[in-house]
């Protein structure tokens, strides 16, 4: 009102002076506290709290209840609570119920300054205020604890809200140099030419409204702006793999041009993306291709305001070469001038294999390699991205949900790099239809979404899963005979994982199964995949005898020379959650065994292209027949299983099958016992039971007799192969007889059948 009065009274100068006073004294931080050689300021929100409570008047103690009420009335902390998934009404009720009390002012100020120093700041904001209150006021700490809010999240959410408000307030200061330098000029685009042919084979990305989250690659976007604006002859080559942020950078530059926030020399530039597919479809010969490219480049030069975007330059050069054309030589005269600029992209392999070796490419283009953003900056980045998404959706993210998005995107989303993986996940969440409380996206919503997307169980276990985990040994023994130790260690590993007690930087579990063939090593993995991972297809099996020598190593992780991805890399991307079974591990090459040292210790390996491939959500089982003779002899003589393990491990080490380092990396080395007559009968019973289930689906009942079980146990056992031939024996003998009876019409739907003694003897 005072401002309006001054204007009405005609005192424009007085009004401006008042506005300047308000700007410098309220919105801009002022020095309030000085400690030694350091000066600390307070921001607008803290100034309101201090003025409301008379904080800066005298040295009396702080009235805690009055201080909380001033924080509530200031309004900013209410937004912080919303970002934490809490209600401001709860805070108001807490203040009303609070018994009051006092805090020492000098001690409080010292704590505020110490908090600033910890975070390398000199401005005291709402995050410092509530952080110190959390430490000093135990009733406030208890209030937040009951809401499941810890100090770290409290300060983080407060900092986020402060950043949002700071950005909004900065927009008010239009007279500052940073804003004035980016005010767009008028009618600067009237002097540029038309581009009919170029428009047919390109897309103008400056004009499209696709959102670009500048925060993810702000540094690179501004670096490109700086390079292109300083010299008309500058061209950029962005080098990064798919999903690492190349498109974000390009869209970011286009967005700055579109919104008039670019450097003056780049105003009214048009960024056009060449449609390589259309060009290839229209040109079948070298002459046609070169003629069209020259026509496009001539138009771009004539226009005078074109930034040409060429995605996958390495493939474009290769395609032109197949037509007999040198694409770089074709565009060199144009890009060497100042009338047209270009931004090209390439993946890492294409750049290092071909483009980096071309003198013309290195001369024409300034290379910008996109690196993964530092982990500590990721949260700040997705806070900004979340604000952008919230403006176009009807959803709001809590601070804890953002932290969970970062965690699960890094851990469970396979393709791409951080923080782009988190950005994409935020986008998907905003439009997924999930929201725990109205339009608010909570931690539980993030976990539910990831579970649906990857089948990886997150959050609290449901009753069905709890029952399975607590009784996993019993359920596994319905399919696996004996081998109690193996069943026990695997079950305990999965229970630790779901209880959140395992090392998250390693696989879910890693086990080396030692024992003779046909005793249940592979069947254990299959049963576990079916029971816990919801299907045997969740088990990926590798026959390690196929991965010997240098070629075997390349086959597993990929080849830089050919660009072929490795089998292991591909399978992990396809199924990041499941069981990976490495049969006969001892037959693989030394390089692969060394690779397993890293996989078992750190939970990832680096493939041929330099990408980290994570196996942290997999259960790794390796099998080996090493030491089988020792196992057989010692168990036959009545030795204890622990004695057998020590003897076998010593023998395996001495034979050089596995190094001591590798054996120690496994969570457990499990000895599988040879099966005796009693165990073979149980195996036969289980396998025949599976066949009975198949017949049930055709409404035919097969009665299993003791004679049939004993016969199958006898004919299905081989001293060398163990019980492995048993399934084949059932298929050839038992199923064969049943199949003939069905085809002859002797066995029909609704019938009950039992093998006669003669039929059993003839099996």
TrEMBL record:
Record-linked PANTHER family: ATP-DEPENDENT CLP PROTEASE, ATP-DEPENDENT CLP PROTEASE, ATP-BINDING SUBUNIT CLPC
Pfam families from the UniProt entry: AAA_2, AAA_lid_9, ClpB_D2-small
GO molecular function: ATP binding; ATP hydrolysis activity
Boundaries of every Clp ATPase C-terminal domain copy: 675-760
Alphabetical keyword list: ATP-binding, Chaperone, Nucleotide-binding
GO cellular component terms attached to this protein's record: cytoplasm
GO terms under biological process: cellular response to heat
Domain AAA+ ATPase: residue ranges: 232-371, 507-650
Chain ranges passing through the membrane: none
Name of the molecule in the record: Clp R domain-containing protein
Entries under InterPro entries matching the protein: AAA+_ATPase, ATPase_AAA_core, Clp_ATPase_C, ClpA/B, ClpA/ClpB_AAA_lid, ClpA_ClpB, P-loop_NTPase
């Amino acid at each position: 009102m005072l401002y309006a009065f001054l204007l009405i009274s005609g005192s424009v100068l007085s009004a401006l002076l008042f506005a300047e006073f308000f700007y410098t004294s309220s919105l801009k931080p002022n020095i309030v506290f000085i400690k030694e050689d350091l000066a600390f300021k307070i921001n607008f929100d803290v100034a309101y709290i201090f003025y409301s409570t008379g904080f800066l008047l005298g040295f009396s103690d702080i009235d805690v209840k009055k201080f909380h009420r001033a924080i509530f009335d200031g309004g900013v902390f209410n937004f912080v609570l919303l970002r934490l998934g809490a209600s401001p009404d709860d805070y108001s009720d807490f203040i009303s119920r609070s018994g009051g009390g006092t805090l020492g002012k000098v001690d409080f100020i010292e704590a505020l300054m110490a908090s600033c120093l910890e975070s390398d700041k000199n401005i005291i904001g709402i995050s410092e205020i509530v952080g110190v209150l959390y430490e000093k006021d135990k009733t406030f700490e208890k209030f937040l604890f009951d809401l499941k809010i810890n100090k770290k999240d409290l300060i983080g959410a407060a900092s986020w809200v402060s950043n949002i408000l700071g950005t909004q307030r900065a927009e008010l200061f239009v007279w500052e140099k940073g804003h004035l330098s980016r005010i767009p000029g008028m009618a600067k685009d009237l002097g540029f030419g038309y581009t009919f042919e170029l428009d047919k084979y390109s897309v103008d990305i400056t004009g499209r409204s696709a959102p670009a989250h500048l925060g993810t690659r702000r540094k690179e976007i501004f670096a490109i702006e700086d390079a292109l604006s300083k010299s008309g002859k500058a061209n950029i080559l962005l080098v990064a793999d798919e999903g690492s942020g190349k498109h974000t950078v390009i869209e970011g530059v286009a967005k700055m041009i579109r919104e008039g926030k670019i450097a003056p020399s780049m105003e009214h530039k048009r960024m056009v993306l060449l449609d390589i597919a259309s060009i290839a479809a229209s040109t079948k010969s070298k002459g046609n291709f070169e003629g069209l490219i020259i026509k496009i480049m001539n138009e771009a030069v004539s226009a005078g305001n074109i930034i040409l975007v060429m995605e996958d330059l390495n493939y474009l050069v290769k395609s032109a070469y197949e037509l007999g054309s040198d694409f770089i030589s074709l565009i060199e005269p144009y890009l060497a001038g100042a009338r047209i600029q270009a931004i090209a992209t390439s993946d890492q392999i294409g750049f290092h294999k071909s483009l980096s070796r071309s003198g013309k490419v290195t001369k024409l283009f300034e290379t910008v390699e996109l690196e993964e953003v530092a982990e500590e900056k990721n949260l700040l980045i997705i806070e900004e991205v979340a604000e952008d998404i919230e403006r176009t959706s009807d959803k709001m993210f809590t601070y804890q949900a953002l932290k969970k998005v970062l965690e699960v995107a890094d851990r469970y989303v396979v393709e791409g790099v951080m923080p782009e993986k988190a950005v994409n996940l935020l986008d998907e969440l905003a439009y997924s239809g999930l929201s725990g409380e109205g339009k608010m996206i909570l931690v539980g919503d993030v976990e539910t979404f990831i579970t649906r997307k990857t089948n990886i169980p997150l959050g609290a276990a449901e009753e069905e899963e709890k029952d399975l985990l607590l009784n996993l040994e019993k359920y596994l023994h319905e399919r696996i005979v004996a081998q109690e130790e193996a069943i026990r260690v695997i079950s305990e590993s999965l229970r630790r994982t779901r209880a959140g007690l395992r090392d998250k930087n390693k696989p879910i579990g890693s086990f080396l199964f030692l024992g003779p063939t046909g005793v249940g090593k592979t069947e254990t993995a299959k049963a576990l995949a079916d029971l816990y991972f919801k299907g045997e297809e969740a088990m990926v099996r590798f026959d390690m005898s196929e991965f010997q020598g240098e070629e075997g190593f390349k086959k597993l992780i990929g080849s830089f020379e050919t660009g072929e991805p490795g089998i292991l890399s591909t399978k992990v991307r396809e199924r990041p959650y499941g069981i990976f079974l490495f049969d006969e591990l001892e037959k693989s090459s030394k390089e692969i065994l060394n690779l397993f040292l890293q996989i078992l210790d750190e939970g990832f390996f680096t493939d041929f292209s330099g990408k980290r491939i994570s196996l942290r959500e997999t259960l790794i089982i390796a099998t080996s027949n090493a030491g089988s003779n020792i196992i057989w002899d010692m168990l036959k003589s009545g030795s204890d299983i622990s004695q057998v393990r020590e003897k076998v491990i010593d023998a395996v080490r001495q034979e050089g099958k596995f190094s001591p380092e590798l054996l120690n990396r496994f969570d457990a080395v499990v000895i599988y016992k040879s099966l005796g007559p009693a165990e073979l009968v149980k195996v036969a019973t289980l396998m025949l039971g599976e066949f009975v289930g198949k017949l049930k689906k055709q409404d035919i009942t097969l009665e299993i007799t003791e004679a049939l079980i004993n016969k199958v146990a006898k004919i299905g056992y081989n001293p060398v192969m163990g019980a492995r031939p048993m399934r084949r024996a059932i298929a050839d003998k038992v199923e064969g007889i049943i199949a003939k009876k069905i085809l002859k019409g002797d066995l029909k739907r609704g019938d009950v059948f039992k093998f006669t003694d003669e039929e059993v003897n003839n099996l």
